[in-house]
Amino acid sequence: MANSRLQTEDAEAGAAVVLLSGGLDSATVLAVAKEQGFRCHCLSFDYGQRHRFELTAAAKVAEHLGAAEHVVMSLDLRAFGGSALTADIAVPKDRTERAIGEGIPVTYVPARNLIFLSIAMGLAEVRGAGVIFIGVNAVDYSGYPDCRPEFIESFARTANLATKVGVDALGAGRLGLRIEAPLVKLTKAEIIRLGAGLGVDFAETHSCYDPGLGGEACGRCDSCALRRAGFIQASVPDPTRYAGG
Asked: Is the pLDDT of residue 75 over 70?
């Protein structure tokens, strides 16, 4: 009954699925989707990540920005590891901006965005959503191959070949599922300014790959470095709780 009610409401309001990690990028993407008038179904993953504090952040962001629902799916990617986020591999610290931008780092989680988008595609079909929003970024993307525009474009084509809604739409000469990545060409500073202008409370977000026991950011991993530099360049106060004050 609950799913039927959501589908009826979404048919009237225009629904979207938003991949929400709890970081500042995904929070900004949710705000963008809301600003565009979408009824937003947020999807987060408990995938065995060492920075599970991001799930608490995601819940706060979803509530603050008025999401229609927030689904958290358990999917333990520690089963095959291969990443500093899902295995006993040290998270890189104190790297220069140049080093961060070179190669694919060990914090890359194999196939993560491919998996997440595939599951989001299923939720979109069930909720009657024609759009999936994702906060990938190819400017400050730290070498992740699944954050590139080419990947998003390719996945969108696949989604419309692999789903009933996509096949039906293409058969009728209509546009099927869309994948929106509004931040893909923005710098971290531009993302922060955009989010701030749309009412994102960045104090609710979490970016650190290796947080302390209380959730405080380490201030030294690649994600912390990009986040800290972004706030400085955006001239926006950084509300992050970093270790050591």
From this structure: yes
